[in-house]
Specification:
about 325 residues, alpha/beta, 9-stranded mixed beta sheet, about 20% strand, globular, disordered C terminus
Length: about 325
């Protein structure tokens, strides 16, 4: 079916060529597609390059690394004030839609007036279903490929579409998350007011970059605790805290050369949650990740922690690994950088 009017906000940081390719792939999906890029504090040279590559695209300068959810909110607010259409979307600067992705999504939406939040799938290599548990929080679990719409626990941020009425009813992304977990929170708020949240099999989005490991671990641990406490209460959150400590010890044991970094980051995440310290990862976490990167140069670090999508934290990461750029589903963003 023809794709109706839909506006897509692409969250970007320091990857202008990738971002331009993402915008081009989205605009090719139909004449009703419009796009805004939110630049999350790119270097002056990369910001200039982005504008040169996308002269006809609106670019909003966040002025800093605002995070994925806050960056998306900047674009969504502009669309709510002056945009047209019933649907708005968000994607990170490295999420490429395969041809026909949006048409496939809207072929399922048109028969579901109660569909409020929806995302694409990651492709046949990654048959993963976004899931929410009252203790485990948000994570991905293996699923069975279907032929269209599937109700899921949350819609992921690698390509997420939300109906205007949902935003007007439940609000924008909660900016405390910065990155990781904000899509699960929005999805749960939508479901609580009667909207359906789904994934459309056959609508594929590719994401080529891995999430920054240590900073992502910090954000996922902290934010999953916030998600569980917000939606399920203090007792499930206390159980999630015990699981977080157990996972921290497990990660330290499985990676003995970096056990101190794992423990420091996970303990910091739990403490920051308990004291209500949310938003961007603190400088101490970034310094620790940089120090770890110098010691272990082949590991992922923080520079792209804000424009990226990602799967939300997988509480059983060791048993059911999160997909990676080549083997994981895309990180749904620190810009997500």
């Amino acid at each position: 079916m023809p794709v109706p009017d839909v506006h897509v906000v692409v969250v970007h940081r320091d990857q202008p060529e990738r971002c331009a390719a993402v915008v081009a792939a989205l605009l090719a999906e139909g004449p009703g597609i419009t796009a805004t890029v939110v630049d999350n504090g790119s270097s002056p040279s990369n910001a200039s390059r982005l504008r040169a590559l996308l002269p006809a695209t609106e670019i909003i300068d966040a002025g800093r690394n605002a995070g994925f959810g806050p960056g998306a909110n900047l674009g969504w607010r502009a669309w709510l004030e002056r945009g047209r259409g019933e649907w708005v979307a968000v994607a990170p600067h490295d999420a490429i839609v395969r041809p026909g992705c949006l048409a496939r999504i809207f072929s399922e939406i048109e028969t579901r007036p109660d569909a409020g939040v929806v995302s694409a799938e990651f492709g046949p290599e990654f048959d993963l279903v976004p899931t929410v548990d009252r203790v485990l929080g948000g994570f991905y679990q293996p699923g069975v490929r279907g032929g269209g719409w599937q109700d899921v626990g949350f819609a992921h941020g690698t390509l997420l579409l939300v109906r205007r009425a949902v935003i007007e009813q439940v609000g924008l992304f909660d900016e405390r998350y910065f990155a990781y977990g904000e899509e699960a929170d929005l999805s749960l708020r939508a479901r609580a007011t009667g909207w359906r949240v789904g994934l459309v099999w056959g609508a594929v989005v590719d994401n080529s970059q891995l999430p920054p490991q240590l900073v992502a671990d910090y954000l996922q641990t902290r934010n999953n605790l916030l998600l569980v406490r917000t939606h399920f209460g203090r007792y499930p959150a206390s159980l999630q805290g015990i699981l977080a400590v157990t996972r921290a010890i497990g990660r330290a044991r499985s990676d003995p050369t970096r056990w101190r970094a794992h423990l420091e980051l996970d303990v910091r995440a739990i403490v920051d949650f308990l004291f209500g310290r949310f938003g961007p990862p603190p400088e101490a976490v970034l310094r620790l990740a940089d120090r770890d990167a110098r010691t272990h140069p082949n590991t992922r670090t923080h520079p792209d922690a804000s424009a990226h999508p990602k799967p939300s934290a997988n509480p059983d990461r060791d048993a059911t690994p999160m997909p990676s750029a080549r083997q994981e589903p895309p990180p749904a963003s620190l810009s997500r950088q």
